[in-house]
Amino acid sequence: MPPIFTRFFLLATWVLLSFTAARAQTVAPTAEINGTVSSDKGEVLPATTVVAIHLPTGIRRTTTTDDQGAFSIPAMLAGGPYTIQIAQSGYRTQLLTNVFLVADKPSRFVTVMPVATVAVGTRRADRTLLESTVPVDVIDMRELLPLVPQTDLTQVLHHVVPSFNSTRQTSADGADHVDPISLRGLAPDQTLVLVNGKRRHTTSLINLLGSRGLGSVGYDLNTLPTNAIERVEVLRDGAAAQYGSDAIAGVININLKSDNHGGNALLSTGITSAGDGLTGLLSLNQGLKLGKKGFLNLTADADYRGATTRRPQRDIASWPVFSYDAEEERQMMAASGKTYADFEQQNGDAKMRNLRGVYNLSMPLSEKIRLYSFGGYNFRRGEAVAPWVLPASASADIVDDIFPLGYQPHINTRIHDASAVAGFDFTLGQWNLDLSHVVGRNQMRYDVTNTLNSTLGSASPTEFEAGGLRFTQNVSNATFSRLFPKALAGTNVAFGAELRHDRYSILAGEEASYFDYGKGKADASAGAQGFIGFDPSTTISGTRRNVGAFADVEADITKQWMVETALRFENYNSFGSAFTYKVASRLQLAKAVAVRGAFNTGFRAPALQQVLYRQLTLLPTSTGPKYSGIFNNQSEVAAAAGIGQLQPERSRNISAGLVVTPTPALTLTLDAYQIDIDDRILLSGQFGQDTTGARPALNQALAAANADNAQFFTNAADTRTRGLDAVVTYRNAVGRGTLNLSLAANFNQTTIRTLHVPSQFQALQIDNKPGNNYIDQRQLSLVTTGNPASKLILSTGYDLGKFSVLMRNFYFGRVQTYDFNFDGLDEGSVFLDFRAKATTDLTVAFRPTKGLQLTAGVNNVFNVYPDHISKAARQGRAPDGFASLEQYGQYFQQTYGRPVNVPYDFDILPYQSQQMPLTGRYFYLKAVYNLGL
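That's the Iron complex outermembrane receptor protein sequence above. Prediction below.
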């Protein structure tokens, strides 16, 4: 090395060592933050969590306030910027942004926390969650959505609220495309859904073939983008006196985001461990300022969900391809050059694509008038399937020069869902007046592909427009309210009126989707196989109007005792009037203990869809398809059967609860309830031609309607539901991070108190032939034991520095139902026992830079599935009158000349969607970038 380079190298080394030593002796400048936290009522708030986040490095420092509401975090890096988050249960989280700290100079923050009020179950603007007279779950979607694997609202709530259940259906026609919901074990249409406190329209679909919500009309919560939601409030108590029809089990109120700045971009994707069910979601949210105090919040997203299939394996006793004779099946299969793998039945989630948009607007027009509006639109394209049409079971519907070996029909939907709300808030002295109008529409059109109309023979197309359903709702509302602060310890009075108008239509399909052309093989089935189209004779359009008036008073008798009363009167132009009332109270026994209770009466008007719906459906039986007609109560078939007009369901709900808050960080609530429902609307059993001559008029009406059997909606049962909800939450600083624990549970049981059976069908209900009951075994079991008997959710989260870890454990309790009885067997069907299952989710989140959060996780870590349907049959019991499945199998072979094929479709549809999803383990990634921090 030349001398000059040697000297330069030595000099550079000396300078570097000198700089390193000097830096090692220098202590980085530090700073401190401190301050106090109190409520907006001037009360100090101990045990409040304070988190300081250094955005350049992501370093987090956490502390909690002391008994005087004071906090201090020393030895922090000087400079910034910092974000400081202050959180306390029952109060709105406060966020301080763009904070810079000066070295050796404490920065003091005096924070006032506004109470986190609830908007459901009360018309007071200052009522907090723990002050509520009835139990309310509040789900913070901002905090939850970036972490959990679910993105659909129904699935998010299913994995957060134990009393709420929603599982995706499979091979259930329209129910494959719209997830039915259940609260406290009741039907989907016995829960009311609000958005920003305004009534949401229902879907146009009636659940018919699915396991959950049979015969009911519910809400399609997945039409709303979850990224547009600030929080969801689930009121677990009857509230018909406050909100009107449907609020028997409770109310779900969805609050949209109202930010006037910032926003986020959310990207989510995942796939099952089986390699199917790929999902993708891109969602954008942006808040805009309108004037000085107004806002416009916009959300748009697009998502995709791939189809899934789980372990189908054809069995010759259930769904052979060519023949029920084993040797003939083997020979014909070999000659075709196919295997059973070529006839795989899709049996899991349907393929789904969504485009959604939501807006939420508020703008003061003056000091005393505020304009507000919100709404949204969802387009959904769904692709599901029906069971294969095969030579063994439906040879007449095989067209040799189109699908010579059979075909699997695809039942597809195009759903358009739109809503808009506009209203004004007026300040009239001490009074407030809220005027609003809500319009909502849901349209669901079917198209069937990969199928044919076998009565056309070789001239049949393979795609059909099958018609659809449409429901429109308009609601006008006026509400006056006023808080009298000096009346007792504070009294709120509210009264108002509501006008609602519903319209329902069935839309006809193209002729080839339903018509019998008589050109195919003998006994060929008319219409599109898999889903027969709506023909002109079933199309219908009808309307209903009702007006209502209500009044409620919430009085704080003392600061420790609150009483709430509500009265409501409604009149329907179709069936008359309903009067409901509610009384609720909460008493603070001690600083940390309160009791609450409520009694209310409720009602649910029959859905216009239930009143008007009619359709012929092809049921896929092992001996070929059968035409089953659902006839409305205005039809000639219903008149011939002696089925009366539908009347409203009426309910009585009593609840009692305990609220314990030993420390601000720990909360326990226990709430027991009993819900009695009279004249509950159910879908009747299937009645075919009567061979005894007891019902000749019904036989003639069925023949005229070209139906093999008939079903009706009827006020068939009085039920009683009893249960217990328990919620324990704990949030506190542990070490240098924050620990979040929660345990929530629901225990639930429904029994039939009385069955209402018309005299002409009394003999069926007591003839010891369960297969042809007026209300069949399956329908009754879905009501009583078709929802999980218990459900527990244990959530453990820990935030430390840039990382967050969340583990959730789920316990899905036992479900017991009778199997389908498509063939109308006199002995009925197998009783299925799906045992309890436990699953685990694990999530890790990382915040590498300002505003960015990355999440990776596994849903159902241990790949747990619900019981296989055959296992559920073994755990259950054989059809009535048989000691075992083996004994029944012998009887079946002797009686029907072939091996037993129950439970139905045990080979091609091995799982039923009862307590939990059917997809197994699921890996997912999420990324959220927050704008405007």
